[in-house]
């Protein structure tokens, strides 16, 4: 579920009246998602909000920011959406209100309206789809090269360590082998993290549920609420870790990995230094999600209507990269 806050018909009508998008037709809560409340809004449309075909836009996503988002970061996220969509990336633009604001407050909570994009999330990608995802990711890396705003990544190796430390003795309650895996792998990230690699604006959470597809085409990249300024190749490593395994992280799909990498490098070839660092970056990407999932596992109330995600799934991926990283990501010399 992802509707944490109840808004009534009057609330929606009053809010929509602040935008030049026509009259409210419907507002439906969206079940997917974890962090925020989302509604699909339909309106009668207006010349004030035109789609890419110059037709009045009638469908929007209304997001109310509920958790894990610093409100001070919201201008960065929303400006990034506008920058990327203006550059032609398949990213929803924000709909500004009548006074030009990209976000507003409703009962003390920030809300924003963004363009609805068509498409569905893919659970089990084909090679063609993985290739398209790689191209789309490289596309936003190139398109954000002249995006001047920046945001520090608050989920870097030291932060993963802090999250694990905050789990304390409960880490072993999730899985008895988890504390040993953390102790074994964590030091290398803090000692060897490749800070020298090219940096830029990254999505940092490009999981299948954050990509919308129509057939083999990426029609939408969404959920930029972990976006930040960090190592560009790390974003590719996150995407690789998220897309190239079966659901439990037990089976690696080599053909999907190859297609993703090939798609990415068609648009933005990796440097030798980036390629050499991929095995470590991929292990780090897996550790990052094991860290947030462990923290959330322990800190999500039992009665919360949110699906808890398994950290061990990502420890398996980490172990796989530790053993096979060099063959999956051959070093420049071959
Ligand atoms: N621009 C959009 N166009 C179409 N659907 C969207 C859009 N943004 C979000 N959604 C839908 O809302 C769901 C939750 O959005 P998301 O940003 O991933 O929320 P959360 O941050 O809570 O995970 C997505 O899975 C998708 O179904
Ligand atoms: N992708 C993360 C969870 C973040 O949730 P999102 O719905 O905001 O993408 C994970 O799988 O651990």
UniProtKB/TrEMBL annotation:
Gene3D superfamilies: 3.90.1200.10, Phosphorylase Kinase, domain 1. One of its GO terms (molecular function) is ATP binding. Keywords: Amino-acid biosynthesis, ATP-binding, Kinase, Nucleotide-binding, Threonine biosynthesis, Transferase. Its EC number is 2.7.1.39. Pfam families: APH. It catalyses: L-homoserine + ATP = O-phospho-L-homoserine + ADP + H(+). Pathway: Amino-acid biosynthesis; L-threonine biosynthesis; L-threonine from L-aspartate: step 4/5. GO terms for biological process: threonine biosynthetic process. Residues 27-270 form the Aminoglycoside phosphotransferase domain. InterPro entries: Aminoglycoside_PTrfase (IPR002575), Homoserine_kinase_II (IPR005280), Kinase-like_dom_sf (IPR011009), Pseudomonas-type_ThrB (IPR050249). Belongs to the pseudomonas-type ThrB family. NCBIfam families: PRK05231.1, thrB_alt. This is Homoserine kinase. The gene is thrB.
